[in-house]
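Q: What would this chain look like folded?
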Amino acid sequence: MRYRNIILSLFISITFSQTQVVIVEEMFMDAPYVGEFTTTNTKYASDNLFKQEMQIEVGSFLVRMAMGGNKKAGSIIDGNSKLRTVYDINEEEYAEENFQSIIENDGKPKLKMMDNAFGGGSSRNSNEDENEDEDSSENNESDDNNEVNRTINNNFEKIGEFLAKKVTTEMMGRSGRVVIEEWFTMDTSLFSYALDVESKLVSSYGGSAQTTPRSFSEPMLRSAGHEFESVEGRLVKYKMTQKDDDDGFKMSWEIKQAKKEPFNQSDFILSKDYKKVDELN
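A: My prediction, written as structure tokens:
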């Protein structure tokens, strides 16, 4: 198995040499009293370089004003210069920290891009999925979802550029009715490359790369003590709807684009118009 992983990693490296991968994720959330949020997260990965740009658009005028307006920010990890850069697209400002300073801070960057509260579930590190699965299977004290109906469609659907298998999970409990629709693909080479680039760069300063959860329904089912059939592959789309006495909660996430293209160095360099600051506001 170890040699198989080494060969696969080598194959991916050769296949993606002198190229870059671009992945665009979009999340939509509509919550009672808060309104609509749309988050777009664009990732660029190439040899020893990783960049992501995040844009948050808020539908509610009052909430948008409370947040200080819609947000646009990004970060670049450069393994060649050993620098991590964060930048504010609206203000055209950037700040930098070197890898050594992050290592001395226990692998935790001091500079923040922006809160990732609505960013496609990318708030856990690459080891947390397995740990969560183990913990949730042991923690069944609160069985809030008493009835479960899970359907796996063996036919493939076209989700953007991917062929994906749909899984629908419906749960009934004290919180009302929750329906989670998920689409999984076995075409994972682009995602694997981008994650591999980010993970290696982040680990070089002692950190842990953030990942999208493999599934949203499965941890919920485990925590409720339900047995279920799992589906292989990588999540490319999900929808979650919660129905209760209010209007309910809606959330969706989807890979809008995933492509390999020729390497473009300008994608990893900030404009000279940006002003350097000690940290972003």
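Helices lie at 2-15, 61-66, 99-103, 128-138, 189-204, 217-223.
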